[in-house]
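Worked example

This section walks through a single chain of length 223. The input is the sequence exactly as stored; nothing has been trimmed or padded.
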Amino acid sequence: SVREAAAGGCPPLIGVRLRIVNGPARPDCRRSSDAMLAEVAGDPKLKLVVLAARWPLYRDRPPFYDPNSPRVGMQVDSRPGPASLTAPLGWTLDAIHQRNPAARIVVVGPVPELVFVPPECLAQARHLHQDEAFCHRAPAGPALARARPAEAEIAAALAERPWARTVTPSAGLCGQDACRTALDGRLIYFDDDHLSASGARRLVPGWLDAALGPASPPRPQQP
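Given that input, the structure is written out below as tokens.
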């Protein structure tokens, strides 16, 4: 069975305050974090806790190639200056581990954020009777430049916490030049930064197996 403790637009982190730039603070994010910890503490049978978010959104401004992305400001409690994921993620991992030391914890790193929306690309290609294969690859440079800082901060938070693991989606989805947007001819993205339902069903179980097993995370593949 699976239980979800989440709120849209809120990272699974404690010790942070969020604000939409030029907008109000978001107190609901604190309530979401408190609810998540309450569920973890209240369920001794819980075996696995998975933390997932659009991590780059909370540590940096939106990518230049995504003008529709919200601008979110994250302030870390007692830490002035630019926000980093490392400290609040570490606090969150410690809080979960202290409340339920038997539960395993996996942090799913950022899904590569693309320079176009694959479903829109596919619809246009079909409308214009063009080759759909063009929509199955996206440039890796911008996506990896966006993901790498967040991946490094996640790795730093886990460095001294061997009871927590992470998996890096970009390692399996992106090569040196391109990131996959489709598998076996079927799109795996819902928009430019979320997996589709079918993409998640195909990819996430393998990611969790890789994180929880003794083997190293998958090596980058050339799309």
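What to look for: The CA atoms of residues 8 and 203 lie 22 Å apart.
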